[in-house]
Design a protein that fits this description.
mainly alpha, globular, 111 residues, 0% strand
Length: 111
């Protein structure tokens, strides 16, 4: 249980970091909530899935794979949103992967 709380904390921190640009442009509340939800889910999936043994690369690959559908859907209405969303995924994904590997290793999630 302690490890799941750590994973959720890592997701909340990543979501809060990703909110900074949205706050600067006064984005709608639902966009902000979706980013928080995205990073909570992405962090849990990164913690429980290993596509690549390196935690940095694992976080990068999974966060990009998860962000592509959301970025495509949002860029249908605002084309300029695609690259900033992917950029934040490229930056925060490896950080989340590393943090999960260091503080909430996936083998410990089952305890």
């Amino acid at each position: 249980m302690k490890k799941i709380i750590m994973v959720l904390l890592i997701g909340l921190i990543a979501g809060a970091i990703d909110l900074i640009p949205l706050l600067l442009v006064d984005a709608p509340l639902y966009n902000m909530l979706s980013i928080i939800a995205f990073w909570l889910v992405a962090t849990y999936i990164i913690a429980s899935t290993t596509l690549v043994k390196n935690t940095l690369l694992n976080g990068l690959v999974i966060s990009i794979l998860l962000m592509i559908p959301m970025a495509l859907a949002l860029s249908a209405t605002n084309k300029q949103d695609f690259f900033p969303m992917m950029f934040m995924s490229i930056i925060l994904g490896p950080v989340v992967g590393y943090a999960n590997g260091k503080w909430a290793h996936k083998k410990n999630l089952q305890k």
